[in-house]
Amino acid sequence: MRYPKRSTQALAARRTAGGMTSNLSIESLFDALHGPLSLSWAAGRSAANTELSRDGNEAERPNLIGYFNPVSPNRIQIIGIAEFEALHKGTQKPSMGQSEGSNIIIYSDDLQPPQSSLALADSNHIALFCSPRPARELIAELRYYLAKRLAPSKIEHGVFLGVLGSGVLITGDAGTGKSEVALELISRGHSLVADDATLFTRTSPTTLVGSCPEVLENFLEVRGLGILNVQQMYGDAATRSKMVLHLIVHLQQFSADELQSFDRLEGQRRVRRVLGIEITEITIPVAPVAT
Asked: How many other C-beta atoms can be found within 10 angstroms of the C-beta atom of residue 214?
């Protein structure tokens, strides 16, 4: 049987696995959402490479998105009908120039920004978008997109599986049998999410979702067998695109003396923090097979 060769991209992904940044440029945001939100870029194209990020002190940075607020500007400001009237029709007009600290201003409800606003956006390097969508819809959809796109994430080494509906990450040093255990579980009806490098994303204060980097999807590397395409060998049910992490199983080689003192009934349990979330980790002793 022939097995596919791992691409150079995949090998690079294995070597560079580690922390992941959660940054998003304004240009990337526009490219992703200009269709769904009917956005048009009216001014401030010099801000295209400015990055939106959740990094930094929570107490010091402004809110990521909200209605136009000249006192405490949001990073993304939405100008709806009420804000438009206050800005451009009221007797005491707040200046859009007070939006220092904002990265994006969006005119909703098919409102057309005046020339003065276009000039201010250009001079202050603020991206100015327009959309026919109502302000409340823009805020709701942008919040949902940004919450997913800017969620903290990192790559953890190990094999991530779906076992009886729970996400289980198998970790351990090279040669401890992680892939062999994974292949045995897959052959018994459980599913593979990712081999060797699993991308974990904190989607809520208590939830970590693990997925597989695209270049590694469906593949499992097993010593002596090579790189197996699990989906082709066992069918679609043998792979999962993502799972919530519930448990970490750590395989560790023990010496003969360490095995004598190891409590096989209680095992060795501890709590491991991944992206600030506590996950139970169980250590299982392994030893080379005697020949």
From this structure: 10
Q: Is 264 a catalytic residue?
A: yes
User: Which is catalytic among the residues 14, 75, 154, 178?
Assistant: 178
Comparing CA positions, the residue from 4, 13, 78, 85 lying closest to residue 39 is: 78
* Percent of the chain scoring above 70 in pLDDT: 80
DSSP assignment string, 214-265: GGGTTEEEETTTEEEEHHHHH-GGGB-SEEEEEEEEEEEE--HHHHHHS-TT
Q: Is 190 one of the catalytic residues?
A: no
Please pick, among 34, 157, 246, 272, the residue that the annotation labels catalytic: 157
Topology of 23-149 in CATH? 3.40.1390
Q: Find the angle CA(158)-CA(164)-CA(168) to the nearest 5 degrees.
A: 20
Phi/psi at 63 (5° precision):
-60, 150
Q: Which of 154, 190, 196, 240 is catalytic?
A: 196
Domain formed by 8-18+152-286, architecture: 3-Layer(aba) Sandwich (3.40)
Catalytic residue among 89, 264, 269, 273: 264
Write down the domain spans for the chain: 8-18+152-286, 23-149
Distance between CA atoms of 164 and 190, rounded to whole angstroms? 7
Annotation says 157 is catalytic = yes
Does the predicted TM-score (pTM) go above 0.70? no
> Does 236 qualify as catalytic in the annotation?
no
Tell me if 110 sits within 8 A of 79, measured CB to CB. Answer: no
pLDDT (tens digit, 9 = 90+) per residue, 80-118? 999 898 887 754 455 555 566 688 999 999 999 999 889
What is the rounded distance in angstroms from the CA atom of residue 210 to the CA atom of residue 153? 9
Q: Is the model's pLDDT at 187 over the cut of 50?
A: yes
pLDDT given for residue 9 in this prediction = 42
Mean pLDDT score of the chain = 82
